């Protein structure tokens, strides 16, 4: 009889993979580390916050498993569950650096950000992205997508960063859930009641044929264990987050307005002959681009009037030794779902290519060029083709490029004069080690639009707004966001739509301060939970988890 | 969501803490920790208005297993049958641990 892996809960999955008697759970259900965000919103918590961390051995090799419980709140990542994964993987990184090899494994069964603590979810997931990239320099990071929830949202970006991804035919992988695409782009874009369409598009069979998952195994404990052991032994790595040339070539050949089905896409995917892509810096022109706060501030900070680029939505230029990068709106974009400044397929891969070029150019330099992201991203693109091709890969490429640049020593600062929402923010903003925002209530920072968040959490918009008032973790405005401690600086007195000379000088000054503060500073994302606001109130649970993990980690 | 608290007279000490279950839809998790004296139960339930039903289910449980434990229960809409099943499983886990 088969020994199903999919049917197991997270704790049992971790136990089933480990050699008998070797498993030891860290920060388990008896440790009282419950999410402080759920009960105040009237939601029943779970004693492990939906993530099980277990150290042990697989075929005699040391591993640490992070298993996400899909049955609890859809496997959504909140502050505590996210910090458990990050802190465990940071311990694993320290061990590997010290020559004590330990292989990290993550079992994905998740809808992504836990919307009831959305801002923490986004921060945590970006911190997971950072640690996965750091770990891959030492060991492969293996991912499993057994199925039930599958892998969605920001955690699908994580899936794209992993060295090797193993699934069953009962799993789906996508960025935006079909319900969210339907909500944002209409039922004609993606009919969330059409189960066949969903499975044919997002199911692992299609995903295996198109580079999104690496291996499909039977739903069997032993099959999973063997596949993991083989991947570890061979140090398998798909380098899925470093395929910008491949995808940019593919996208060059794509007609975004013509219909594309799963079979057509497989053919297209198989025929790609990757060509190298390098985006030249933006140039001044006579014709103004589509107005946006991102464009306004990019042009003011770089001094380039009516900046134009070969990729109309990605502007980059060097000014005073700093590299500025912006993703901007183009109302005439050939991709219909990317006309309001969203991060689409082209944008993520292009930003990755720009950042990778810079890192390569600075490879042998002692002092690395600072990168300044100008952030005005209302969201990622919501569209059928985006999901079919895998927009999470595009966002992963960008997030990985920024993370690698930072880890290589580039100071990476995000300046937020516009919106910073969801996957767009994960791709372009959250891998910075200094976040600077304007104190302007016109700025929205969040994981999902109110309409979609209300639909997914089965609340009315009024109920959602009421809930967000009392929980900064759910806030949509920059002043509440500040309370989390994530910001290096909130600039007062500068309006996002008025980049006058004095305002620009103020912003330049703050950016300089941020860069000065990064001299000899850690190249990770620790500033977000070690600053006074975070320690005192914003990230109390995160810091508690980190301390407990440090205490419980040693064998 | 509703928070409930119950106290039951109990006589049998336990030596190990146990945890069982998942806060999945229609399910619950149970934690029992050793204590002395009466058993205290703290319940967080997603289904409001079932105080009396909990009272009955727990009375039957304590009639059978008068264990001295501090209980934490997180419930996401489990039926009385499922509650009883998980409590019984927790007793089995306790037996294994001891």
TrEMBL record, chain A:
PROSITE patterns membership: COA_CT_NTER
Single GO BP term: malonyl-CoA biosynthetic process
Domain CoA carboxyltransferase N-terminal: 1-240
Keywords, alphabetical: Transferase
GO MF annotation: an example: transferase activity
The protein, known as: Malonate decarboxylase, beta subunit
Organism: Schleiferilactobacillus perolens DSM 12744
TrEMBL record, chain B:
Compartments in which it is found: Cytoplasm
Repeat in keyword set: no
Key words, A-Z: Cytoplasm, Phosphoprotein
A Gene Ontology term for the protein's cellular component: cytoplasm
Post-translational modification: Covalently binds the prosthetic group of malonate decarboxylase.
Keyword match Cytoplasm: yes
Primary site of residence: cytoplasm
Residues the record lists as O-(phosphoribosyl dephospho-coenzyme A)serine modifications: 25
Residue stretches in coiled coil: none
Name of the protein in its database record: Malonate decarboxylase acyl carrier protein
Organism (species): Schleiferilactobacillus perolens DSM 12744
